[in-house]
Amino acid sequence: MAAGFKTAEPLEYHRSFLKENCRSDGRELGEFRPTTLNISSISTADGSALVKIGNTTVICGIKAELTMPPSDAPNKGYMVPNVDLPPLCSSKFRPGPPGEQAQAASQFIADVIESSDLINMEELCIEKSKLCWVLYCDIMCLDYDGNLLDACIIVLLAALKNAQLSEVTINKETDLAEVDIQKKKPLKINRLPVEFCRNDKNDSIIIVDPTAEEESLSTALLTVVTDEEDRLCAVHKPGGTSLSGEKLQHCINRAITRNKEISKLVGKVIESTKTAK
Amino acid sequence: MTELDQSCSVLREYGSEQSLLSKPDGSSTFVQGDTSILAGVYGPAEVKVSKEIYDRATVEVLIQPKMGLPGVRERTREQCVRETCKAALLLTLHPRSSVTVILQVIHDDGSLLSCCLNAACMALMDAGLPMSHLFCSVTCAISKEGQIIIDPTARQEKVRRTALLTFAIESVECNVLMSSTTGSFSVQELQQCIAISQKASEQIFQFYRDSVKRRYSKIK
C-alpha cells in the first residue's frame, strides 16, 4: 500500500516522513549514507579508486602522460578531469555526447581542483617548456542514486593519493626522456576538499545527501566544498529557491564536520594498503 | 573595516536597453562597464514532445560566446541561469510550453555571469512573462590580501589567487538564489561578500524599477 502511495504522490509521501523529522529510508535529516572506499581497483591505471555512498557508485582512474607544457604556464603540468554519466547508471541519461549534467559536473570538478590547489602543478613539470605530466582523471558513474558531486570529489581525492608517477630524467645527450618504471613516487596533495550536498525541499527543509528521488523532488541543491583548514573552496548553488544566511551557515558547519569524517576515511584506506604491501 | 568601504559598493557604470529586436518576444542588452550581453526571450512557445513537462513550462537557456562554439564552461553558466529563471518564473501558468532565453556575449570584461543574469531578467520582463520575483546578480572578487572588490573587470579577475564569487539575489527578501564561486576563501569573507552583494542589489533593483517606469510612462 505504501508503494502505491509513493508512486502516485511522491511529494506527499516524502513530506509525511519529513514531518516526523526523518526520511523515507530511515535516516535523520542530517545523516549521510554509509560511505565505502576502495583504491587501486584498476591495475592498468596509474591511480584509481571506487567510492559507494549508499547506492551511488563512482569510479575514477588516473592516467599520467608526458606532454609539452602549455605556453602560458611553461613550468606547470596540468590535470584534465572528465565526468562521464553513461546510460548504465540511470535511465535519465541517453547514449551520445555528454549531456549538460556531465559537462557541468566536469567543469565543477575542474574549478574545485584549481580553487583548492589540490596538487602543486609545478611538481608535475619535469623540464620547463619541454616536458611535463598531464593527469587525465576519468570519473565514471556506475550507479546514480543522488549526490553525484560528493562521490566524484571523494573518488578523485582517493585516486590522486593512490597515484604513483614514474621518475623521468632527460638524457642530456640525446635530449630524450627516459622513464624509469621501477621507481615510483607518489603525488603530494595539498588540501583535502570534501564536498557536501544539501537539498532544499518545498517548505525550506534542508536534507543532506539526497537520493535520486529526493533530488528530483527538491527545489534547490547546494554544494559546499571545504578544505582541511576550514576554508571554503566552492559554494555552488545553481539557482532554485532562495537560501537565508543562517541556513547557509548551518550547511557550512555540517560540511566542515563531514570533511573530518572523509579525511579520516581516506587516510585509513591509504594506510591499510601500505601495511598490506 | 575601512577596506570594506573603499571599493566595495561601487558598481561599474551599468545600463540597459529593452525591446531592440523585432523577432523575439522580449529582448534586452545589459552593459556593466565594458561587459555587454544581448538577451532574447522566446516564450511561451511550442516545445518538443520529448522535452515537454505536463504541468509547467520548460525553460531552456543558450549562451553563445563571442568566439567559437559553446563549450563546457558555457554549459555551467547555462545551468546557473536556467535554474535561477526557473525559480523566478511562474512556470505552472504555461504547461507544455517552452521559454527559451538566448544570451549572446558581445564583450567580456569581467563579471560575465552577473551580466548574463541581469540581461536575462530584463529580457524576461520585456517579454511580459509572469514572475514571482525579480532577480539580479553581483560578482565579488577577493584579492589575496583579503580586499573585496565588487563588479571586477577582467584584469582584476585574472590576478593570481583571486577568489571570485557570483551571487544572484531575489527582490522580495534579498536572499541568495544562486551562488557560483571559484578560488578559496574563508566563511567570514563569504558572509561579507553576501552582505555587500545584497546592498549592491538594491541599486540594481531600483534601476529596474526606474527603467520600467520610464518606459511605460510614455505609453498613453
From TrEMBL, chain A:
Main localization category: cytoplasm
Protein keywords: Cytoplasm, Exosome, Nucleus, RNA-binding, rRNA processing
One Pfam family linked to the record: RNase_PH
Single Gene Ontology MF annotation: mRNA 3'-UTR AU-rich region binding
Domain Exoribonuclease phosphorolytic: start-end pairs: 31-165, 203-256
Single biological process term from Gene Ontology: U4 snRNA 3'-end processing
Subcellular localization: Cytoplasm; Nucleus, Nucleolus
SUPFAM superfamilies assigned to the protein according to its UniProt record, in alphabetical order: Ribonuclease PH domain 2-like (SSF55666), Ribosomal protein S5 domain 2-like (SSF54211)
Any one GO cellular component localisation term in the record: cytoplasmic exosome (RNase complex)
Family: Belongs to the RNase PH family.
PANTHER family: EXOSOME COMPLEX COMPONENT RRP43, EXOSOME COMPLEX EXONUCLEASE RIBOSOMAL RNA PROCESSING PROTEIN
Protein name per UniProt: Ribosomal RNA-processing protein 43
Gene name for this UniProt entry: exosc8
UniProtKB/TrEMBL annotation, chain B:
Keywords linked to the UniProt accession: Cytoplasm, DNA-binding, Exosome, Nucleus, Phosphoprotein, rRNA processing
Matches recorded under Gene3D superfamilies: GHMP Kinase, N-terminal domain
Keyword Nucleus found: yes
Pfam families: RNase_PH, RNase_PH_C
Location (main, coarse): cytoplasm
InterPro entries in the cross-refs: ExoRNase_PH_dom1 (IPR001247), ExoRNase_PH_dom2 (IPR015847), ExoRNase_PH_dom2_sf (IPR036345), PNPase/RNase_PH_dom_sf (IPR027408), Ribosomal_Su5_D2-typ_SF (IPR020568), RNase_PH (IPR050080)
A GO MF term: RNA binding
Nucleus is among the record's keywords: yes
Cellular component terms per the entry's GO annotation: cytoplasmic exosome (RNase complex); nuclear exosome (RNase complex); nucleolus
Stretches assigned to the Exoribonuclease phosphorolytic domain: 11-130, 133-199
Family the entry assigns: Belongs to the RNase PH family.
Family annotation (PANTHER family): EXOSOME COMPLEX COMPONENT, EXOSOME COMPLEX COMPONENT RRP46
Protein name (Swiss-Prot/TrEMBL): Exosome complex component RRP46
Recorded name of the encoding gene: LOC107662150
